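tool=predict chain=A
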Amino acid sequence: MQKLEDTQIILLAGGKGTRLIEHTKDYIPKPMVLINGKPALQHLIEMCLEQGFRNFLILLNHKAEKIINFFGTGEKFNANIDYQIEDSPRGTAGALFDSMDKLSERFIVIYADTYINVNLKKFLKYHVDNKTKASIFVHPNNHPYDSDLVQVDKNNLVVNLYSPTDRPKNPIRNLVNAALYVLEKSIFNGDILENGVIDIARDLFPKILNNGIKISAYISPEYIKDFGTIDRLSQVKKDIKKYLPEKLSDSYPRKAIFIDRDGTLIEDVGHLSDINEIRLFRNSGKALNQINNSGILGICVTNQPVIARGELTIDGLKDIHAQLELMLSMEKGYLNDIFYCPHYPESGFIGEVRSLKINCECRKPNIGMIKEASRIYSINLQKSWIIGDSCNDMLAGNRAGLKKILVLTGETTERLKLKCCPDFTFSSFYYATNWILFKYYKISKILKKFQESFFGIKDVIIIGPAIMSMNICGVFSEINTELGIRKELKIINKHKSENNFGCYQGMDNTSRKAVNWRTKKIFLFEKSPAQVSKNLIKINIVIQKNITKTPYLIKKDPISFTLFV
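tool=predict ok
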């Protein structure tokens, strides 16, 4: 049996790069554009070599000699490189068809104007295990409306492919053809056109689907992005500086933010069953865009009892989620995946689905959906978060070992009944996301250094807006636990009108005390820092107008500091 790494790599490098002409000056072909001091094509070849692939066929047309002169036979790269030069452009599938005598029985196709960091062996094994004739690498992106979309069935077999100008009546998932394929040579037999321009996605795949040949879709969050325009090339370079390709790879467990749907991402209209009732909270898509650009996965986990109650079909739910993904993309954001629980144990609904009326492991506060997402996407739960508006979300976070953020966009009656305190509280999903991405880790670093400097101080007085002060208190509590410090923390709320309960079970307005049920500490809500210990440090909280700005701490006097968050 052929080893996976013996599979041939086909690099499509014949494009003219007219959209990059301003950058290349037409002196070099597009695949030779420098990224971090190396030609982009060299990055691709070296990535393949690192995974054990040695055999390459590069399909050329425009300025072919530039590429041949640089790579030669591949000997200096410890690779075997062969070339096929088109007389005239024939399209991606046409170029493959014209190279039939040089193709192996199975091969991987990579476009040379993409920068990728993908586990090709894993992709190839998926293809072999599925026993299909072709496999397409697909992923969500933030512009599905102008991308080629791939429609799949429950087994991730391709049902149809849609260009931006050819869309079905019902919305479909944000699964974009990333132009990375595993193909069997046998698909070129039969009635494939021998003449004219033939494109893989537009011509070849629809034809073989019509002939009953199966195509599988490989869904992955790994980094793959084309640099065919000046803007996209610039974005790829920025992503590399942020280590985005490495963060999204499967070399190490990934970080994720698990996100509740109703009351967190979208308004809770009460058992949503109508696609027209979806209403995004302000900046939900923008928040997801920030998550996407950070290298952290954004995964929705949602209880959907409407299925068990018979109020919505699974197909109807998929339509709702497809529409939700489209709406999020209008704000340049996307979800890496959506996991839903269709079960509901209570009975008595007209049209209910009896097989789904069970106590399951997936319905929050159980963690079946989180565990399944962790398995599929190799997620490090200890370094991940959950954002939600209910006690069930917080309990699920507790059970899964996630850091938890409660957002105040759900039902107030639910929040007041909390028995499981979140780690942090924010007014919306957008502000919760900003805390994770731009504030929490920097503030933790600042306050840890602060605590180590004032180890003997008895009291820390935090003066500022109630919710943010409580969040800072939460960070202090984590640090104190880590350092083994037992220190009294007190909050002085500067805004009496602001909701003080946040992550607290209840509040006695007479004594102005609230109990934090996570740490069992009592915090004081006072009008002024009167009659407090002399052995103390005061920290004033100032919220910066630019919420993505880096937090910093300023010392005002020996016992007073200002923390800008």
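The chain is about 30% helix and 25% strand. The chain has three domains: 7-233, 253-420, 437-564.
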